[in-house]
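>> received
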Amino acid sequence: MAGITKNKKILLIISVIIVVVIATAMVFWNSIKYPLIRKEANDQVFAKSKGLYRMKYEKLDLDEVAGFLRVTNLHIIPDTAMFAQQIEEK
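>> returned
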């Protein structure tokens, strides 16, 4: 009987550790996902347009499980000075 109690205790400790690790990972991911996505999206728009466009938006909602991303009030802002420079270079 003492062996079963010891095994249950070990299983309980391992379960608690796993739950704590998962909870910590979720809190960490939720704290960095929006700044990470915001920076990467802005960098990609700027890089792919060769500096011609910037992106601004009001709100970003992400549900990575459902594969859903919603951007509220998205504005693509042209840089007319960069456009003129690109025209001159051609």
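>> The helical segments are 2-48, 80-89.
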